[in-house]
Amino acid sequence: MHRFVHKAVLCCLLVTVTLFIPPASWAESKPLEKMEPITVKAARGVLQLEKLPTSATVITRQDIEEKNYINVEDMLREELGLDVLQNGTLGSSTTVFMRGAGSSSTLVLIDGVQVNSNTLGSYNFAHIQPDNVERIEILRGPQSTLWGGDAVGGVINIVTRQGTSTPAHTFSFEGGSFATFKETLSSRGKFDRLDYSFTASRIDAEGFSSANENNGNTENDGYNNSSVSLRTGLDFADTRGRADFIGQYIDARIDFDSFVFGVGMVDGPPYTAQDSYYLAAPVSYKIMPFWEISLNPNFAYDEVQSRNQTSGDSTIISRTSTLDLQNNITVGDHYNVLVGGEYQVRAGENISNGMDRKLDNKSAYMQGIFDYEDSLVITAGFRHDVNDSFDDVTTYKFEAAYRFKQTGTRLRGAYGTGFRAPTINDLLFPGFSNPNLQPEENTSWEAGFDQTFLDGDVSLSAVYFDARFENLIQFDLTTFRPENVTRATSRGVESTLKVRLPYDLEVSANYTWNQAFDTTTRTQLRRRAEHKFHANIHHWWKNRLHSLIGVTHKGKTVDGATGTDPYIVVRAALDYTLDKHWKLTLRGENLFDEEYEEISGFGTAGISGYAGFAFSF
Fold first, then answer.
1. Per the confidence metrics, is the pTM higher than 0.85?
2. One Pfam annotation, family name (predicted)?
């Protein structure tokens, strides 16, 4: 009966979305709003997105509002080159694999704060909210030259919003399936030289069983999340300087099921509670017209408390303190030089088993950029890291892109190296560690093109990448400890297509083909899908109504002796602006009630629907 009601509600939602898309005779054909150029902070803020030679995607604020997802992790599921894996209901641990590299090889930044766990190595995307996010920058391929270790697969940088005009405030509410409710209060604005942006939100959900219900598990795993995000900024010295304070606090708790050896996931009373805060106080100053210096002291703290009926209670603390100094120097009309250094202390502590370790790292980096008349861009850079636990490491990267203005064709390519040191858990966790692990090394190259037609109404891009890993670190399900895979290869093609149609319709699609395998055994690497496809159909009507239908396909994966089957899920979202104060939202997820898994043995949401509103004042 429960599933029948959900299906009926979602079918009504889909019909409603369809009816709200006016026939061609009603619509007013007009060009879509042109976005302002985006300077990519994940590339150290020198080049705009359209000039970057490396493969990059930016999820804008408009994308976030139109897609109407509840979490950042859901936005990432649609993107090129990413495998997003969640082990259960809303709030369950969520990690990202990029271009076949491990989850610990994707560096995650929040306004320049490195937030990867020092014990696990990866970042848990389950709790980060999109409410105060301006954009999400994704750089694919090794970025160790600019960001050091943990950036072998790439970088995901989350940039928070900045107040820009008269103060305005918004209260929003959404409720729906699995007894899910979210309330958000936000305010942002600017007073002369001072600006601010603030958001506070709360999520409560009864959820569903993280252990797959098909295996006889029926207990719902509840979730709650209280988050606060603040960004304040002050322009000084006639706008030659700027100082910011950025803070993010998350208090989350998820009821979770237990893992029993030989059985798998089963219903149980355990829970996990996480407290996180991320602080940054970046300051930039233009010393001379050609020389800008930036200093970013920042701190990341995560404390995870968990209770498990088989392994007992545990408290794990991760702390990262970073001081980053960056110089941007302009030499003439076409040259930029980026020179900087970083000092970082990373600490991990597991109170229940006495594990406590600090890692100290010092680094220097430099990158030269040649940008000639919006046609030719060439970059070359290197970085040297001095770590107190491993030998010194030098990485480098070369990139180039050339635009043929007459045809709208842009060719680009990159060649670079990266590395990742074993995590504290990899080396020290009692019973599940391997003190003999070697750092993971990567050599990667890519070549691709971007093409536009019909004055930009049609855009197409494709890139081939090839990454070779030495000593890839992967958890072995037979020894239950991390091991170095002697050699591994990840190669593939990433392609996108976007078409603007008459009557304010837009179709966008992307496809990722990725072969990631152990070169020695010729077996597929764990949890990496070879095929992934996503498409969205958008429609806008009179600047008041927006609707979309999205389709995601993901191919099979292997995970030791098990794995996951291919699946297709369909969603729909709608928002309607009544006036300058009110906006209504409606969305449906997994409209055809597909039964699927992202990780073997863990459940996923069936057909579900959500409705809400936003009131601005």
1. yes
2. Plug
